Backbone:
């Protein structure tokens, strides 16, 4: 199902250190457009960045709360929601401080780029994309948080790179009583960050020699059983 141009946010404002909408953002928008959303649907975005996905959910009719641990991202998301005349509540929050069983749908495009550093950075531009040595530092936290904040029958939509382990994500979600599957995939050109890390990615076994120009993204949908 194509995303309607009328409901796709355009001209999102960003500043250095805030993730600008890219292929993964639009892939998750496409998945979001397939969900049954009404004015009674409570949506939570984890790690909102520019607010593009939160604005898109609001334009589809949902009641949207968006959170981020970056003050810059919170400011950007609030400005973008206002520019698009979308009702989005944006809060500065860590994932561990969210209310339980409040949401029908959780969406997230977390930092997932594998990084040589032991932990994701606490500041700087790379904070918007680095996800630790296997790219899963934030992915696993999103899985755990979704299991806590979703109402019974609610769903999680999350996008990340295949090199982080789609089956690993499905298994992690299953242990948290969420039934998950990959619902969309897309091959995209490697960006500058991944290109700069190719030797390290090969050494770690995260990318083989045949995949030097493409990265596969996956969208995972998980339903709270």
Residues:
């Amino acid at each position: 199902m194509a995303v309607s141009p009328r409901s796709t946010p355009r001209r999102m404002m960003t500043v250095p250190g805030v993730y600008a909408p890219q292929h993964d953002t639009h892939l998750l928008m496409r998945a979001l457009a397939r969900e049954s959303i009404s004015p009674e649907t409570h949506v939570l975005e984890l790690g909102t960045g520019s607010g593009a996905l939160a604005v898109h959910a609001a334009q589809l009719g949902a009641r949207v709360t968006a959170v981020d641990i970056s003050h810059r991202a919170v400011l950007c998301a609030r400005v973008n929601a206002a520019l698009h005349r979308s009702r989005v509540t944006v809060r500065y929050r860590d994932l561990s401080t969210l209310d339980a069983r409040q949401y029908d749908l959780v969406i997230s495009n977390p930092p997932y780029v594998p990084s040589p550093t032991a932990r994701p950075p606490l500041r700087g531009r790379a904070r918007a994309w680095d996800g630790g040595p296997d790219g899963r530092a934030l992915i696993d936290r999103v899985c755990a948080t979704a299991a806590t904040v979703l109402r019974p029958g609610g769903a999680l939509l999350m996008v990340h790179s295949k090199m982080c382990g789609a089956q690993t994500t499905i298994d992690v979600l299953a242990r948290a009583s969420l039934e998950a599957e990959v619902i969309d995939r897309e091959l995209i050109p490697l960006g500058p960050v991944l290109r700069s890390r190719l030797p390290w990615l090969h050494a770690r076994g995260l990318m083989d020699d045949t995949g030097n120009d493409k990265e596969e993204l996956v969208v995972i949908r998980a339903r709270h059983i």
Q: What stands out?
A: The chain has a mean pLDDT of 92. The helical segments are 23-33, 52-59, 71-83, 137-149, 166-175, 192-196, 198-204.
